[in-house]
Amino acid sequence: MLQATRRLLANAGRPNRDISIVPQPGGRNNRAYRVTAGGQHFFLKHYFRHPDDARDRFASETAFLRFCAGRGLTWTPRILAADESSGLALMEFVEGSSVTPAAVNEADVDQAIAFFRELNRHRDDPSAQSLPLAADMRDTIAGHVALVDDRVRRLDRIPAGIPECDRARAMIQSRLIPIWATYRERLARAVAQESDQPVPRSNQALSPSDFGFHNARRRANGTLCFFDFEYAGWDDPAKTLADFFLQPAVPPPTSRYAAVECAMAETAGVPIERFAPRAHLLYPVFAVKWCCILLNEFMPVDSARRGYAQPDMNVAERRSAQLERLSQRLEDVHREVFA
């Protein structure tokens, strides 16, 4: 690690003497470090790799950060150097504080909208076309449904015989699957009444994906810096909208839903009267997907990724906390579906 970091610092034209590397808490998928060299601070990320995890997180994030830096965006950290062979990326260290649920305000939502707009102001640049599809990108309603079908089926891989896993399996069978089956049937009837045309590239959006205040730091001057772009790329803006509000860690105020919806429709070049009904129809689909995401802690590969990022994590406590979140989210989805 030390020699690889020294090379990255040299490649970035930064001091590579008197180096200290200190692990940083909070990462969920990868390992993070604060590097100090020559009195300067840097952020080092070591990406998780697994033969059963097809997402190239290193390539997706480094490409996205370079794109943002090339367009002068100040909403993201600057990438300084990267080494694919070691899976390491060196970035600027963003001084500031985490954004907490209690501290999120409407002005923060305005900053998120501004970042999204500025990012997509450059989506016609030739280099934007080489950016990958966002994770879980599907361009039809049927495609989004099929993706959630697959996620729900994969929950069968949760092992039995472990107390938290048995609780999860019981909740899936008694609550999650019935909700999904009911909404899936209703959705099929709605889609059958009108054509489910793919969203063309001209109406897709460049999305940070996993976009929200859980992946942001507040600088001393109050501006936000967004990070974690391992899932970023071209996306269905209806999914970006839903994911922004559904991520459970630091949710935005729901009072700003209409403003964010209008901004995303306008950015994608879709009239709001056409964008809003489709986004509303898909919202419960993405809500069920997020229920499945909350259960990642119980899945073998995802659990391995969490263990890589947080080797000292108490697995049983983390799983219990996720089940509490899942129970609340299922109540919300139940109201949405059966209202």
Number of folding domains? 2
N- to C-terminal separation? 54 Å
CATH secondary-structure class of the largest domain: Alpha Beta
Helix content: 40-55%
The ordered string of helix (H) and strand (E) elements is: HEEEHEEEHHHEEEEHHHHH
Describe the strand arrangement of the main beta sheet, using strand numbers.
1-2-3-5-4
State the major sheet: 5 strands, antiparallel
- Beta-strand level of the residues, as a percent range? 5-15%
State the total count of DSSP E strands: 10
Structural class: alpha+beta
Overall form: globular
Ranges where pLDDT stays below 50 over 5 or more residues in a row are none
Would you identify the CATH architecture of the largest domain? Alpha-Beta Complex
In round numbers, the mean pLDDT is 91
So how many helices? 10
The gyration radius over C-alpha positions equals 20 Å
Annotated CATH topology of the largest domain? Aminoglycoside 3'-phosphotransferase, Chain: A, domain 2
Map the helices and strands.
Elements: H1 2-11, E1 20-23, E2 31-37, E3 40-46, H2 57-70, E4 79-83, E5 88-92, E6 97-98, H3 106-120, H4 141-154, H5 163-192, E7 205-207, E8 216-218, E9 224-226, E10 233-235, H6 237-246, H7 257-268, H8 272-294, H9 300-309, H10 315-338
Helix pairs in contact: 3-7, 4-8, 5-8, 5-10, 6-7, 6-8, 8-10
Descriptive notes:
Helices cover 48% and strands 12% of the residues. The protein is of the alpha+beta class. It has two domains: 2-92, Phosphorylase Kinase, domain 1 (2-Layer Sandwich); 97-338, Aminoglycoside 3'-phosphotransferase, Chain: A, domain 2 (Alpha-Beta Complex). The strands form three sheets. Strands 1-2-3-5-4 form a five-stranded antiparallel beta sheet, with helices on both faces. Strand 4 and strand 5 (88-92) form a beta hairpin. Helix 3 (106-120) runs parallel beside helix 7, helix 5 (163-192) runs parallel beside helix 10 (315-338) and helix 8 runs antiparallel to helix 10 (315-338). The longest helix is centred in the middle third of the chain and has 30 residues, at 163-192. It is globular, with a radius of gyration of 20 Å. The chain starts with a helix and ends with a helix. The model has no long low-confidence stretch (mean pLDDT 91).
